[in-house]
Amino acid sequence: INIDGVIYSKDKTVLVGIEESTYNLNVLNVIDGVTMINPRVCLGWMNLETVILPDTLNTIEEGAFGDCRNLKNINLPNSLKKIGNYVFNFCESLSQIQLPESLTEIGDAAFMDCRSLEFLKIPKSVTSIPRNLIFNCYSLNEIYIPASITEFDKECFVYSYLKEVKIYGGELSKSAKSSLKEAIKKASEDSETIKVIQHEIEP
Fold this sequence. Notes:
Layout: E1 2-3, E2 6-8, E3 14-18, E4 27-29, E5 36-37, E6 50-52, E7 59-60, E8 73-74, E9 82-83, E10 105-106, E11 128-129, E12 142-146, E13 151-152, E14 164-168, H1 174-187, E15 195-199
Parallel strand pairs: 3-5, 4-6, 5-7, 6-8, 7-9, 9-10, 11-13, 12-14, 14-15
Antiparallel strand pairs: 1-2, 2-3
């Protein structure tokens, strides 16, 4: 079903494609009822600046907004559970993004090359930090991580520009501390040592 150049499944629950003429526009307004955005749907949409998502959305599949280099504004609804691999890869103009408390899964390299990103808080609903999460995020010097995290991929912070990892909501478990230590050791091979700070107040 084609609605204003945006193609949906017959039941209007999946965003499946974008008509070529739509790439001239700078706003994507996804209709209510959509629960999933298919892989690479908006890949390379250079004019896209703003995305408005419905409160029914729960999954954004791999690379959905990859290479949208002028994307500045996107609201992630409180229904969202999964951000797939490389979803915001090369979204170079995205300076901030608020991850909802409903989110349980973040894929590998989800924010890779988001070079303007200045603030990132992982919600308490997430339990693991994936590999290459903030690879080449030049502007991101600190990240807020909840004490609920049980595992850090050893390559989660490689080629990042982090100076501080701020833990909020209590203390990490012993095994999580151990995997964080490994991740920082791996990341520090190509950058300065990253400090871990216990952050008493939730950001």
